[in-house]
Every structure is written in structure tokens, then in C-alpha cells.
Amino acid sequence: MIDLLLGASLSPSDIGQVLLAYPQAFQLSLDRAREVLDFLRDDMHLSESQVRTVLTRYPSILNMNVKGQLRPQVAYLNSLGVGPESLPELVLSRPLVLGPGIDTVITFLKRLGVPRSQMHRMLRSCPLDYRVQFKSFSAAAPGGSSSSSSSGGMGRN
């Protein structure tokens, strides 16, 4: 895997960054990772420096299936108005648009009333790479009292 990443113009520092962000990268199938690199270069027409940017920002892409995930995702983005000429820019600024979680974001934007013709602008301008997670939530009934747990857990039943 190291040779493959070095061949993709990643520096030793970049490879360290990939390892820290996605340790599983070094256990992946070389054939699958090679297919992903070929897809980024040939199908998406990314330069070596752009491939390096995508890999360091979204290393788990190395484990994605080109035929079953990446190509359908690109087709989906095209259907939302992201043309082949603007796709590389979008992927470089928001590499997670190639990931499986984009459907949730699209559904959210649709519920907000964003027209399909404007979806690509929203994808480019809105951050997609953060999540909100509620670890503990309790609400007291009106007029009642509530006790909160200092452990940050879900509380007692």
C-alpha cells in the first residue's frame, strides 16, 4: 500500500496523515485501492496533486467500490446538476460528496425546499463533513422536576 500511495505522489508526511485518519488503509485490497486511484485520474480527470488532496482529506475513499459506489455517486451528482466540468472542483472542496452519507444531506436540502437545479450550489457551499450527535438528552415535564446525570450517559430508567 505504501508503494501505491508513493506512486500516487503522496509524500511520507501525506502517508502518515492517511494512516492517522484511516489506519485501515494499510489492510485494504491493493486491487481495490488501485481501481480507486485509476477512477480519480481517468474518470474524474484529477491531476496527481488533486488525487493527493482527495486521499489526504478522505482516505476511506480507497476502500470504496468503483462500480458499485463511486460511478453511481458521480451519476447521481450529475443528475443534480453537477456537470463533468465542475465535479472535480466540488470533489476537491468537499470530498465527502463521493461518500455514502450524501443521500442524507440531499434529503435534508430537499425538505428545506432547495430546488434540484440549485442543489449543486448548496453542495459546494455547505459543509458536509460534520455530524451532530446527542449523547444525552432529557426533558422535564412542564411543572415537574428533572434530575440530570453528571456522567454524560443516557441516565437511569
What order do the SSEs take from the amino end to the carboxyl end, as H and E? HHHHHHHH
**CATH-wise, what's the superfamily?**
Transcription termination factor 3, mitochondrial
Shape: elongated
Q: Total strand count, please?
A: 0
- Give the CA-CA distance, first to last residue: 49 Å
Largest sheet: none
CATH topology: Transcription termination factor 3, mitochondrial
Protein name: Mitochondrial transcription termination factor
Keywords: Transcription, Transcription regulation, Transcription termination, Transit peptide
GO molecular function: nucleic acid binding
InterPro entries: MTERF, MTERF_sf
List the helices and strands and how they pair.
Blueprint: H1 2-7, H2 12-21, H3 30-43, H4 48-57, H5 66-79, H6 87-93, H7 102-111, H8 119-125
Pfam families: mTERF
Protein name: Mitochondrial transcription termination factor
GO molecular function, one term: nucleic acid binding
Please summarize what this structure is.
The protein has 157 residues and is mainly alpha-helical. Helix content is 50%, strand content 0%.
Overview of the structural elements:
- This protein has 157 residues and is mainly alpha-helical.
- It has helices at 2-7, 12-21, 30-43, 48-57, 66-79, 87-93, 102-111, 119-125.
- The protein has a single domain (2-125), classed as Transcription termination factor 3, mitochondrial, CATH 1.25.70.
- The chain is built from eight helices and no strands.
- Helix 2 runs parallel beside helix 4.
- The protein is elongated.
